[in-house]
Design goal:
55% of the residues lie in helices and 0% in strands. It is mainly α. It has a single domain, classed as Four Helix Bundle (Hemerythrin (Met), subunit A), CATH 1.20.120. The two termini are 25 Å apart.
């Protein structure tokens, strides 16, 4: 595992998130919820962006970003344009946070504890990538449910892995 690998995986999934948000024909559908589903695609996008801006930008990169996790789940009817701007800010937070993180740092403790525990930086950054991917899948399912679209947006495309190259 390297910082370049982590950055590549997260960049791939943030690109997929942008495609997901753009695939909703009606912007208001980003905020629809159904019985038994507590979060809309818009809510999940805000949460993903806040999570990455905090853990990569503020904690690793010293960006000064101040997270309001409750607002990530409370805000409604944010425009698609603003959601995409938050995704772009998250991508920049990942780039800048990892720019000052060496591969050797991945074996050291993450600078802060989370949930009352400490862990290696690399373990936590992979957890953050998995967290993004988990919510990306929820957004994909939400889009299909809300819009009736059955098509994929190429989320988790294997050819977009950081190490992908032509076979043969």
């Amino acid at each position: 595992m390297t910082t370049t690998w982590i950055a590549g995986i997260i960049a791939r999934d943030l690109d997929a998130l942008r495609r997901e948000l753009g695939a909703y024909p009606d912007e208001s559908d980003l905020w629809r919820v159904f019985p038994g589903i507590s979060n809309s695609a818009g809510t999940l996008a805000l949460h993903i962006a806040g999570n990455l801006q905090h853990f990569f930008g503020a904690v690793l990169g010293g960006s000064g970003y101040v997270r309001d996790r409750e607002a990530e789940f409370r805000r409604r009817n944010v425009s698609r344009r603003e959601l995409l701007a938050q995704v772009d800010a998250a991508a920049e937070a990942v780039r800048s946070g990892l720019a000052g993180t060496s591969d050797a740092d991945l074996t050291r403790d993450y600078p802060i504890g989370v949930g009352g525990v400490r862990f290696a930086t690399g373990d936590f950054l992979v957890h953050c990538a998995a967290h993004l991917t988990y919510h990306l899948g929820q957004i994909d399912y939400h889009r299909r449910l809300v819009t009736g679209q059955s098509g994929q947006i190429r989320a988790l495309a294997v050819p977009e892995l950081p190490s992908a190259r032509q076979a043969g």
